[in-house]
Specification:
Layout lengths: L20 H9 L2 H18 L1 H4 L37 H34 L1
Helix pairs in contact: 2-4
């Protein structure tokens, strides 16, 4: 009598099928929260990158004669200053676009620096 023995399939031998990057991205966009966050991040990145061309005015120029202009959707609001002006007469839209550049730079720099420090500490720890 002959018996055939085969090696049992071990859990460690299992490899899930490879998934493409596009399939993973498509599945991620199926979730509403991810899609909304990704679109908002892209809009902010676009506005920050193209701020010099999108901003209607210089964000640092002060004009006291234009102070406290209301936004366009309020009474007496004009399309000249879509988001209005502050108490020094600076355009809010221009300041928002240029401020996004600084905020994104600080956020990405903090993530990069913490990643580098964590990697170095992980390598030193073994």
């Amino acid at each position: 009598m002959s018996t055939t023995t085969s090696s049992p399939l071990l859990i460690n031998d299992y490899q899930p099928p490879a998934r493409s990057v596009w399939r993973t991205l498509r599945n991620s966009f199926a979730h509403r929260g991810f899609a909304i966050g990704a679109v908002l991040l892209l809009i902010i990145l676009f506005g920050a990158l193209f701020a010099p061309w999108l901003a209607p005015y210089d964000p640092y120029t002060q004009d006291v004669m234009l102070r406290m202009k209301p936004p366009v959707w309020m009474a007496n609001g004009t399309w000249d200053y879509v988001l209005g002006t502050d108490k020094l007469g600076r355009d809010y839209l221009s300041r928002l676009l240029y401020g996004a550049r600084i905020s994104l730079f600080i956020g990405f720099s903090a993530a990069l620096i913490s990643g580098v420090i964590g990697t170095i500490m992980g390598l030193l720890a073994g």
